[in-house]
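quick q for whoever's on today - can somebody do inverse folding on this one?? i tried earlier but teh output was garbage lol. tokens:
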């Protein structure tokens, strides 16, 4: 169970969307007065450049998951709400939020867990609400988490999606380029697998993690700011089966992420009371 929880966390943070040679169509829902003649490929290239130059960002994540595990005859409904501040280099992160799991207890009651994480040069500190205790993880765990978390910056999210640009619906309003991708089947499997495989390998000591995917459907919605070309919104809905080392689950996931505070975060500091009170793992 724990390995699937970790996998889903990595999968959520590792997936994204991008932006061929046509201009954006104005959205029909409202009047658009500020139209751009940039093509899809031009927007994608500018967005990649902006993402590669990004130094820091804040992300607000609202995610709902339904996870079915046939081998354990279990279905879990999971809702996570997280705020994350992220500095790319040197890598620093502060993440805080709650995870609500339904279907865990025999009575069917919800289990709400508060979680908070710091990763800085001082180490990795994790607060888990069920124990109400700060824990400090060893340096090898910090290195593993850094390898996985490096998958979350916008440049990493955008780069693998260039091969799907011809299938992207390209619209615009006054403030944003709006990119929509809807797909299903094997052609989208590599979009998920390559990113999750790389992140998962950084989190496990096993040399070979056998991870297979079957993608039933995947929908992306991305907003790219017309002035900065930063990705400020990423919504993803995905239905897929995952098999890891012989164990299979079905995952339905709806994740909404809003990005803000581009290059505004200079440093993340672990509070002294967290350092003093943490228990070494």
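ok took a stab at it. sequence:
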């Amino acid at each position: 169970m724990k390995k699937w929880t970790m996998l889903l966390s990595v999968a959520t943070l590792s997936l994204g969307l991008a932006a061929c040679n046509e201009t954006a169509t104005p959205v029909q829902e409202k009047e658009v007065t500020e139209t751009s003649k940039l093509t899809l490929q031009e927007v994608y290239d500018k967005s990649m450049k902006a993402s590669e130059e990004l130094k820091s960002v804040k992300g607000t994540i609202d995610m709902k998951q339904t996870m079915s595990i046939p081998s354990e005859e279990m279905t879990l409904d999971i809702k996570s709400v997280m705020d994350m501040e992220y500095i790319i280099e040197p890598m620093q992160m502060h993440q805080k939020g709650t995870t609500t799991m339904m279907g865990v207890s025999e009575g069917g009651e919800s289990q709400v867990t508060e979680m908070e994480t710091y990763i800085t040069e001082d180490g990795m500190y994790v607060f888990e609400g069920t124990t109400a205790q700060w824990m400090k993880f060893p340096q090898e765990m910090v290195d593993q988490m850094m390898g996985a978390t490096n998958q979350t910056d916008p440049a990493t999210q955008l780069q693998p999606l260039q091969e799907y640009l011809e299938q992207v619906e390209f619209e615009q309003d006054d403030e944003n380029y709006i990119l929509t991708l809807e797909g299903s089947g094997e052609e989208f499997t590599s979009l998920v697998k390559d990113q999750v495989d790389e992140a998962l390998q950084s989190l496990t000591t096993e040399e070979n993690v056998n991870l297979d995917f079957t993608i039933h459907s995947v929908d992306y919605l991305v907003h790219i700011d017309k002035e900065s070309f930063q990705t400020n919104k990423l919504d993803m809905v995905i239905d897929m089966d995952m098999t890891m080392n012989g164990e299979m689950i079905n995952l339905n996931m709806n994740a909404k992420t809003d990005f803000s505070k581009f290059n505004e975060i200079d440093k993340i500091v672990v509070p002294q009371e967290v350092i003093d009170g943490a228990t070494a793992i």
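fwiw Residues 67 and 251 are 5 Å apart (CA to CA). also Residues 1-20 have pLDDT under 50 and may be disordered. so keep that in mind when u check it
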